[in-house]
Amino acid sequence: MPPSDERPRKLLLVVDAPSLLHRNHHARAHTRITDRAGRPAWALHGMLLQILEAIDGFAPDAVIFGLDDRTASIRADVYPAYKAGRAEKDATLVEQLNRAGALLDALGLATLTPPGLEADDVSASGAAWARDNGWDCVIITSDRDAFAHISDHTHVLRLINGGISASPLLTPARLVAMYGVAAEHYLDFAALRGDASDNLPGVAGIGEKTAAALLTQVGPMQTVWADIDQNGGNAVVATMDSWAAETGARRLGATVVRRLTAPDARERYHFNVRIMSGRADLDLGITPDVPGTPGLLPLDTHRVHTVVGYLGVESTTSLAIRVLSTDPASAALH
Length: 334
Description:
The chain folds into 2 domains: about 10-180 and about 280-334, 5'-nuclease (Rossmann fold, 3-Layer(aba) Sandwich), CATH 3.40.50.1010; about 185-275, 5' to 3' exonuclease, C-terminal subdomain (DNA polymerase, domain 1). The radius of gyration is 22 Å and the shape is elongated. The protein is built from 14 helices and 8 strands. The protein has helices spanning about 15-30, 40-60, 75-80, 90-105, 120-135, 170-180, 185-195, 210-215, 220-230, 235-245, 255-260, 265-275, 300-310, 315-325, and strands at about 10-15, 60-65, 110, 135-140, 155-160, 170, 195, 200. Strand 7 (about 195) and strand 8 form a beta hairpin. The protein is α/β, with parallel strands linked by helices and about 325 residues long. Helix 1 packs across helix 4 (about 90-105) and helix 2 (about 40-60) runs parallel beside helix 14 (about 315-325). The longest helix has 17 residues, at about 40-60. The strands form 2 sheets. Strands 3-2-1-4-5-6 form a 6-stranded mixed sheet, with helices on both faces. The chain has a two-stranded antiparallel ribbon with strand order 7-8. It is about 45% helix and about 10% strand.
């Protein structure tokens, strides 16, 4: 994605708000920042600072924040063990998670809490909206599921320790370099590997390296399953073993086919795809042809001053007014 002063397309920034709040709750708890009502605000304040840094750097034309429905979960209804085993959230984090949407809405930024769904689904829909409307898109999240949405016009800023500036911006080429798998194969890759953080086991015996090699050498899982059904997996074996001979790797073709044809292997793969797939058809409510609607930048200076000022950190208020109340860098191009 070219720098903002060269970009011919408008930019949508999609923010996984729970990711930012969780990370900032743990990183900034020592500050014990409270708002003017005395309520815990360090996670909200940290999230806002990271948002401002991202907006200042990317100069988006619109921003939407995905939030989790904290009252219902379609995925947990299907799979009660979904995300089981995670530590119980601290009460101060829960309170700030519950207040985040109101804070962002009050600023004039767009938020979406899809019923029964998660911020991941907003990310998927944001990437689809940008593609369909001829925009670029940057997704900010720590969740690897978003890698499936990477394309020439959608990149993912993967949050890691060190904040926005230290986080990698994953493009199609960089995803291959870091994970050995193309974006269009990432959902297949994740379904084979599984996701311990969501309590989703992968296909037994298929780890990250094997999954990446299978998808890179043979193709998508649709091709793999077709060969297994129609040809006993012989083409998979031949292709994997030929690759092993060329690279000096261990011959795994027969082993891979055996593991993919083990009882419940295919069912596990398809179940993971079902749970991991993000909903790409949500109505984001973004109306770029209607100035002043939520999510479009710049924002009203008075609203920014009032809302951010309530957090009680003067330097953040000044920064927010500068970043949120001025035209995005790309505006001059349109």
